[in-house]
Amino acid sequence: MNNTHAFSARICHALETVLLQTKSKYRGHAHKLMDISVLQLFVEVMKQGSFAAAARDRNVDPSSVSRAISGLESELGVRLFQRTTRQLSPTEAGTTYFERMEPLLEELQQAIEVTTDVSGQPKGTLRVTASVSFGQHCIVPLLPKFQARYSELTVDLLLTDAVVDLLAERIDVAVRLGILAESTLMAQRLMPTRYRVCASPAYLKRAGRLQLPQDLAHHNCLLFPLAGFRTRWLFKDKQDQLSEVPVAGKAMISNAIALQQCAIAGMGVALLPNWLVDADQQAGILVDVFPDYEVTATDFNTAAWLVYPSRAYVPAKVRGFVDFLKQSIERE
């Protein structure tokens, strides 16, 4: 505990020193320290590039962000941003201030998290992002149990199929699907992903069963608008022989759950992940058309990954969520 308080005091002293040095440089004297939240807002504006983006993230009016930054500039006696009707760009002083302030605020946040963790139950807000389909199907059903276990945590779940910048959006944990790109982020594999070519019993009765992957040429395929998914599917047989099969169809749908629903309704054949359709296959609602083949649109070794910012200290709220989700997925 003493080490934690000493760490917090050191960071606060460093922040005070930077503020005083900056004011001395630009005005020759120092006033009272400005609110830390204004400094955090300044860093957010620098990262996001506009008052409007920072305002949207905080759910406030852009004019209030502009006033806060103007107040900071007045306090420092220096302009931090050049403003035009179309663009916001940092001045040399703004860039220098950001380079000094941003790592100190990051350390201050870590000090707060360390102190909170030492005090017991994780508190605060946990920001999580995942794709719409994975989030709805795999994360949302687990939230009641998670919040019952961590009653003092607020969960902010962002479901989007866009790749979110974890640092700019202050995301604590992301679930990413597929092959991970090289990055400085920390990652743990949550679960392997296996794809199935699925169709409803009613569709197969009407359109005829498929014997080989090449038979897809005579069937209506329900397509996902990503490279690979919409033009050809890849198959590997038990002898590890690979084949690339062109696919075509009359429906292009950008959501996996919507594709699943269309397949259940008998519209055609769909390529869907195991985490979404395994229960449907067990219930007989969907049929695995090619059970003797591995199939994918991009890579056979895809997975769902838990990704979070690389840092010296991982907060208890992040550790708790990661462990909870891994244990819950393994039990299912």
Can you count the beta strands?
15
User: How far is it from the N-terminal to the C-terminal residue, by CA?
Assistant: 39 Å
Largest sheet: 5 strands, mixed
Round the mean pLDDT to the nearest integer and report it: 86
**Coarse structural class:** alpha/beta
Q: How many DSSP H or I helices?
A: 11
- Overall morphology: elongated
Strand content: 15-25%
CATH fold naming of the largest domain: Arc Repressor Mutant, subunit A
The secondary-structure element order is HHHHEEHEHHEEEEHEEEEHEHEEEH
Rg for CA atoms: 26 Å
CATH architecture of the largest domain, by name, is Orthogonal Bundle
Poorly predicted tracts of residues = 20-33
Description:
With 332 residues, the chain is α/β, with parallel strands linked by helices. It has 3 domains: 2-118, Winged helix-like DNA-binding domain superfamily/Winged helix DNA-binding domain (Arc Repressor Mutant, subunit A), CATH 1.10.10.10; 124-193 and 302-331, 3-Layer(aba) Sandwich (D-Maltodextrin-Binding Protein, domain 2); 195-296, 3-Layer(aba) Sandwich (D-Maltodextrin-Binding Protein, domain 2). It contains 11 helices and 15 strands. It has helices at 2-27, 36-48, 51-58, 62-76, 92-118, 132-139, 143-149, 201-207, 256-264, 274-282, 316-331, and strands spanning 81-83, 88-90, 124-130, 153-159, 173-178, 186-192, 195-199, 221-223, 232-236, 242-246, 251-252, 269-273, 287-288, 294-296, 303-308. The strands form 4 sheets. A 5-stranded mixed beta sheet has the order 4-3-5-15-6. It has a 5-stranded mixed beta sheet with strand order 11-8-12-7-13. Strands 10-9-14 form a 3-stranded antiparallel beta sheet, with no helix packed on it. β9 (232-236) and β10 (242-246) form a beta hairpin. α1 runs antiparallel to α5, α2 (36-48) packs across α5 (92-118) and α3 (51-58) packs across α4. The longest helix has 27 residues, at 92-118. The radius of gyration is 26 Å and the shape is elongated.
